[in-house]
User: Which sequence fits this backbone?
């Protein structure tokens, strides 16, 4: 029933199509890209889009289209991995705090609160300093700042679910607490959790691109969309294509995830107060 | 009410203490020091510098001595801008950020509410779709792209406004537009959703059946209740706007809090980072307190809950 509802949703189809194409291009980057992402002088320097280089070339004569394709890998990988990390961390913390309450709730939630008030930028800079500006540093930086939101959400949901009759019934037939949490409560909360995951992914992609844009994220030779936009920004007045194409790629991705989140929420989590979509 | 504020103040002090402690020790975890340079100093000079700034003492002693000073209102001098007190740097940097943030907040709140109300009221019409189109663009466009597009159009092609720097009123226009886009979009969507829900509720039908006019129902009955979720959003939005957006300040070269914060962490300017962090914490706490007070003003039922 859920599937047929989703398949009738135009926004769902639209966003899944876009994201599907994007993923295929990202995974198959070596196959689709005409050049390697760091191959220099494959064309003229700083050329606007011309035949053979549909998005133009950068200052070292690298093909921007190829760089954007490889960049999709990085940006999407950072988005997915950090969101899943946040989901797992946040769900475990939130579920324990919400289910057991009392002392556990106090301890865990004060940890969450401290992470919540620490300036995100400070944490991000610290993690990239400690672990380098490679994938691991960025992953931990974004993961550490986003899991707390997930923890708060899950805690609130579990606290509501704890009072439901099915949990009481579970306890009455002698199920262990772990079993109640993981086999009964969490599966029931799948809807809101999937929805929040779909909104978390684009947010994290955006955060990565912000960090890379202000020069604190992934560094060359990595070519995430934020890094590309940063490189393009320096020559924005003369060579706008270097910034506009990575920006456009990011915008389309964000838009697709946004519509996907909207559609999923309408179907999976209709009572959500997160705000509903257009045309509904 | 006074009891509530007092309780919140004590809570805030505890939060600030945690924040300061965590930041202090996390900062020291990071490799590198404030006086590292390309050229390696002779060991005696390095030792002298460390002794002058008290960096040779054990970490916990350094923390307590800093905390003692901070509690007495002394944030010490910056390591990087030698001889300049941290409080002076912060009070200089706060001005542009505060001006931009306050303007952006005003614009995003007024425009966001209007767009939200318009699209809920004229649901399904061209008004609805164009307002929500703006809202979606504001949420999905990265702010550096908005900033760049604005600079390209208004400064490069049309030559209407300065592309960067912090000089006169004209240089505020583009940063303020960039800053307000995202909060505007979030507020517009939230207003639309809640207002649509409320317009279908029983008490609105009753109001209509009493023969009240459209505008009375909308502005006197529906809007006030629709404001509550929007106000919840305002706390974090206001805090992030006032503490300055790093991206906007980088793109437009504005000497605000955001810029100083990045450079101070990169420079390992320990006193400045600590001062900035405290400042951010205080702003966030004040914003959340104002939001809670605004709740009880709009919905008197919440007041009693806040007291308990």
Assistant:
């Amino acid at each position: 029933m859920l599937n047929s509802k989703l398949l009738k949703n135009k926004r769902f189809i639209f966003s899944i199509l876009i994201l599907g194409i994007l993923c295929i291009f990202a995974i198959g980057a070596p196959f689709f890209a005409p050049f390697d992402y760091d191959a220099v002088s494959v064309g003229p320097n700083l050329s606007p889009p011309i035949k053979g280089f549909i998005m133009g070339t950068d200052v070292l004569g690298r093909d921007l289209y190829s760089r954007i394709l490889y960049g999709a890998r990085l940006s999407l990988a950072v988005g997915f991995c950090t969101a899943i990390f946040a989901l797992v961390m946040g769900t475990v913390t939130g579920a324990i705090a919400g289910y057991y309450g009392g002392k556990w709730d106090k301890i865990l939630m004060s940890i969450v609160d401290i992470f919540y008030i620490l300036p995100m930028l400070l944490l991000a800079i610290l993690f990239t300093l400690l672990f380098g500006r490679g994938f691991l540093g960025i992953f931990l930086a974004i993961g550490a700042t986003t899991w707390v939101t997930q923890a708060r959400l899950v805690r609130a949901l579990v606290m509501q679910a704890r009072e439901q009759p099915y949990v009481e019934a579970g306890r009455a037939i002698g199920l262990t607490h772990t079993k109640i949490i993981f086999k009964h409560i969490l599966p029931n909360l799948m809807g809101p959790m999937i929805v929040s995951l779909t909104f978390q992914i684009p947010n994290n992609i955006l955060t990565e691109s912000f960090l890379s844009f202000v020069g604190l994220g992934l560094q060359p030779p990595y070519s995430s969309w934020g890094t590309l936009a940063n490189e393009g920004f320096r020559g924005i007045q003369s060579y706008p294509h270097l910034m506009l194409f990575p920006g456009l790629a990011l915008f389309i991705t964000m838009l697709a995830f946004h519509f996907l989140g909207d559609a999923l929420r309408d179907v999976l989590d209709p009572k959500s107060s997160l705000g509903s979509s257009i045309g509904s | 009410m006074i009891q509530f504020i007092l309780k919140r103040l004590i809570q805030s002090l505890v939060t600030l203490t945690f924040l300061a402690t965590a930041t202090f020790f996390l900062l020291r975890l990071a490799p590198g020091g404030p006086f590292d340079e390309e050229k390696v100093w002779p060991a005696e000079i390095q030792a002298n510098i460390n002794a002058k700034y008290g960096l040779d003492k054990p970490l916990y002693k350094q923390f307590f001595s800093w905390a003692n000073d901070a509690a007495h209102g002394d944030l010490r001098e910056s390591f990087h801008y030698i001889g300049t007190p941290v409080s002076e740097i912060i009070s200089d940097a706060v001005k542009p950020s505060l001006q931009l943030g306050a303007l952006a907040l005003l614009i995003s709140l007024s425009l966001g509410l209007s767009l939200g109300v318009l699209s809920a009221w004229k649901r399904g019409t061209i008004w609805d779709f164009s307002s929500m189109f703006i809202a979606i663009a504001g949420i999905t466009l990265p702010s550096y792209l908005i900033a760049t597009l604005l600079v390209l159009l208004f400064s490069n092609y049309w030559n209407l406004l300065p592309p960067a720097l912090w000089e006169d009123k004209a240089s505020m226009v583009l940063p303020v537009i960039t800053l307000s886009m995202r909060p505007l979009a979030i507020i517009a969507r939230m207003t639309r959703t809640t207002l649509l829900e409320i317009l279908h509720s029983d008490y609105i039908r009753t109001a209509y059946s009493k023969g009240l006019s459209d505008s009375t129902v909308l502005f006197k009955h529906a809007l006030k209740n629709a404001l509550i979720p929007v106000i919840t959003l305002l706390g974090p939005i206001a805090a992030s706007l006032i503490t300055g957006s790093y991206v906007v300040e980088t793109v437009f070269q504005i000497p605000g809090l955001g810029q100083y914060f990045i450079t101070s962490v990169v420079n390992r300017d320990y006193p400045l980072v600590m001062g900035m962090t405290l400042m951010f914490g205080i702003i966030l706490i004040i914003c959340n307190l104002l939001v809670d007070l605004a709740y009880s003003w709009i919905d008197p039922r919440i007041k009693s809950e806040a007291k308990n």
About this structure: Chain A has a mean pLDDT of 82. The two ends of chain A are 20 Å apart (CA to CA). The CA atoms of residues 176 and 253 of chain A lie 43 Å apart. Chain A has twelve helices and no strands.
